[in-house]
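User: I'm preparing a small set of examples for a lab meeting where we compare how different chains pack in three dimensions. I only have the primary sequence for this one, and I'd like the structure in token form so I can line it up with the others. Please keep the answer compact; I'll paste it straight into my notes.
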Amino acid sequence: MEPDAISTLYREYSGYPTPISAFVTANDYMALLNGTSFTLIAEWSQSETFQGTRLHYAQQWTLIQNYSKETDIDIQPPSPCSLLHGELLSSYSLSGDLKAVVRETSGQFAGQQFLEVWSNSSLKKIIHLTALNKHGRVYEDAQFGCLAWSTCESRLLYVAEGKRSIGESYTSASSPSAGESTARPLGSPSEKDRSMYWEDWGEGLTSKSVPVLCVADVAKGTVTVLQGVPSHVSPGQALWAHDGECVFFVGWWHEPFRLGLRFCSNRRSALFCLDLEGNCECLSGDTSSVSSPRLSPDGRYLVYLEGQVFGPHSQCLTMQQVKLSFQRLSESLPLLHLPVSGAFHAGLTARLMYSTFSGPSCRLTLAIIQLAYINKYIVNINRHALIDCSAYKAPTSHLWLKTQSSQDERVMNFWSSAVHLKIAVAFLPLAGGEGEVSWDPLGESCLRGAIVNVLDIIPTPQEENPEYSGLDFGALLVTSNHLPSRTKVPLVVFIHGGPHSQFFAEWNVTTAVLVKLGFAVLMVNYRGSTGFGQDSILSLAGNIGSQDVKDVQRAVLTALADQTAEKLLTLDPDKVVVMGGSHGGFLACHLIGQYPDFYKACAVRNPVINAATLLGTSDIVDWRYSCVGLQYSYDQLPTPEALTTMLQKSPISYAPQIKSPVLLMLGGKDRRVSPHQGLELYRSLKSRGSPVRLLWFAEDAHSLARVDTQADCFLNVVLWFQQHLHLH
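Assistant: Understood. Below is the structure token output for the 728-residue chain.
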């Protein structure tokens, strides 16, 4: 296929909108009493490749409850889409009467930030945050950021960057050496401090260094920076207590120095309560990692996730529960080590960030990773009951949207497979009837004629991990059923990064377009992927470059061998290519080095090539030790033995054996895996005359997430594979 046709197809599929959040409210007082008519407002994100931007827009539906059956919904046609310009954060009040927006302007006031409060009919209040000069930029990220209404709907809580120099109204913690005071004295900064280095929280959180909790008084138009946060922690994920007299927040330790926080649930942190007078109390233990606090509607319970510090950066977590009247801590959902067939088995992950309490009944909705799926559950925290209410059977995934709803119990669900998107809404039945949830679709997009097969793969006895035996893993094989019978199809082996992440049976634009172009795609979840229990995650430590490499190769051989006479197509063993990013790129480069005659081409994004040289440049230096089976501490210094181990487990050791043509795609601002990693392989291959091409995206980072970058990468990957598979 010609480049223009490939780009057109990618533009079409990448333009499918993705739901971000939703809010449901009664339309009027009588509707609230009768429970008959509601308005649902959903916000969406959509990639627009012509301009290289992501559009953010809103859409409304009217929902009418059926009297004959309370869970049935009559959905009226949606309103036209409304583009949202410059919205960084938004939040509806509990009553649904007010909407708060943090907006960043363009044009004459470019870069200025405002806090707006809207009613159903007009703008009620605007606060020029930049002009007030109480703090720096508002945090809009999912790690720290929040925008929370108090129950009285008169105040808003958010997180912003603290001010660092004087002339300003308060002091904030800096980044001192170990043992040095974190207090920064008032007074004009001296000349010697002009070029002082300020740490931040690493990849994806660049320039976010010293967060502070801020409260805006809507009526007065004032902003107060809350005092009393311990100087050794950075606050975020804050929410109001039920009485509005204090706030809860997660505090991450930033002493003796900050480690990268994005995608890392293993950072030392604790749950705190801070009153408006500046008195702060720790509600959890202080030797673990916590996240995602949620307050029950009656204000009696606070639940959150808890995990270990260091080790794998994404692990199975426990759900903890605090009864606030007694400050009694208990465990709601335990950590799961091994999958248990037919039961909740895979352990909680950071996906709980998308959960919410629904209505007054203290039922918590959450998404749980299980094997290749994200399934929907409801937890009754009073009874510690866990109910599966996934709308569709495998191979699909479900993700609760952040649906805000105070009086009502309305939930919104984002459902997808690897080639299918659907958004649906439901009324929750009374407690005990959650298994009978009836989902009504609001819209869908899909790739017609594609099939998703889930493979369960068992390692051979020689590939078993003696410390964690009996572990299997999985893969998703996505193929087209619109090709002529017995067609030989080239296979793209697609490997996720992390390594402790996963390919879910959810919408993946790369996979969908590759299948449309005539490829089959094998998405491998090797041992160490999330969704298979804690033992699977722990099994990879010390075994990178061997166990995970063998798992991917075993998955490929399994897929190639699974060819029956009834199949409409056959995977072509002579046309297998491999692609991946980060740790997926690490594995792809290992595969073409360890199996040099098997893969006909390779495409990698920001790959780890030499773990030894990465040690001093990555924002997650702890993982560079943990992944090779070594313990980490903040005062760790490299040893010859440690560096040797890292080098031996790196793809660069196999560079002389590589025969496959390699396409490298590197982000110039990557702080997780330095782009110089890819350059090491590039130079090694160039020196040996091996085919290699390098794309350098100077303004992009580790995820290569810019819209124009993603489109450029996809086009180049397809053309690279077509060239070296001799496809016309």
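A couple of notes for your slides: Residues 450-725 form a domain with the Rossmann fold fold (CATH 3.40.50.1820). The chain has three domains: 18-84+341-446, 93-176+203-335, 450-725.

User: Perfect, thanks.
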